[in-house]
Design brief:
The chain is mainly alpha-helical. It contains 15 helices and no strands. It starts with 16 loop residues before the first helix and ends with a helix. The relative contact order is 0.07. It comes from Luteolibacter soli.
């Protein structure tokens, strides 16, 4: 702790009609392009799941075959159109499909896409699915995908999943989630960090929390970095990062804060940060 640092003490905009019409035309064009791609793929595979040739292929086996195709257009359509469609209609079937893919058949991208879908529908079930994957690296990346996506809307729930299922990566997951939590509920995020017992982890989490908060309220983030982080090294880095955000918003206020710094390398570095921020 550096004692000197403690000295810190909805418009509604209408959318023009022309923009709305353009958006509708763009949306119609996208749907037509997706339907056309799906129809072409169905023709290549020699099968269509419905009588409507514009409908996407619905057979998971056919989608898996397409994902493993040597034809780039076929594989891309399967990944970008057919798998998302299957995920919306039958997420467990999409999860089973992705889990059964060979490594060369878009497996990693399919797994991460399905993990993201689980985050939106049933994160707990999604984490169980992740843990059923045979590869430890795949488990980690899929659980991380679920936690990071869930953290945007429900960071406390994401943190619970990270603690219970993050394994050796749970601290890294906690740092990721701390990027979102202060924006959703600052008091809850601060209370959670305060209850950590590991000093090193706590300092790291305060650092991540301060960096996230700096994008919203750099002055409050500066106070937090000054008061909460005990490691001088981590505190110095947090101070410089927060100062950068502050200078972008209010260069004069940031410069006034730097004037409180004692002479030394950090003060000189801080002055350079303020002058160099645009």
């Amino acid at each position: 702790m550096l004692p000197w640092l403690l000295a810190l003490g909805g418009l509604g905009v209408g959318i023009p009609v022309a923009v709305k019409q353009h958006a509708l035309r763009s949306s119609d064009a996208e749907r037509h392009a997706a339907a056309t791609s799906s129809s072409k793929l169905a023709e290549r595979l020699g099968k269509a799941a419905t009588r409507d040739r514009k409908a996407p292929v619905h057979d998971p086996a056919a989608i898996a075959t397409a994902l493993g195709s040597a034809d780039r257009e076929t594989a891309a359509t399967a990944l970008e159109v057919l798998l998302p469609d299957l995920t919306k209609r039958d997420l467990p079937a999409a999860a089973e499909l992705a889990q059964g893919l060979d490594p060369w058949a878009q497996r990693q991208r399919a797994l991460l896409f399905v993990a993201g879908a689980w985050a939106s529908s049933d994160p707990e079930a999604g984490v169980e699915w992740c843990e059923s994957l045979g590869n430890a690296e795949e488990q980690h990346y899929c659980i991380r995908t679920i936690c990071n996506q869930l953290a945007i809307t429900d960071p406390a729930r994401a943190m619970t999943l990270a603690e219970e299922h993050g394994g050796s990566e749970k601290n890294a997951l906690a740092e990721d989630i701390m990027h979102h939590w202060p924006r959703k509920d600052l008091k809850a995020a601060m209370a959670w960090v305060e209850n950590r017992q590991d000093p090193g982890l706590k300092d790291s989490l305060w650092n991540h929390l301060a960096l996230s908060l700096a994008e919203i309220d750099p002055k409050q983030a500066a106070n937090l970095a000054a008061e909460r982080i005990s490691s001088e090294k981590i505190q110095d880095e947090a101070v410089i990062s927060v100062l950068h955000q502050w200078a972008l918003k209010d260069r004069n206020a940031a410069a006034e804060w730097v004037e409180l710094f004692p002479d030394g390398p950090l003060r000189e570095r801080a002055k350079g940060e303020v002058l160099g921020s645009h």
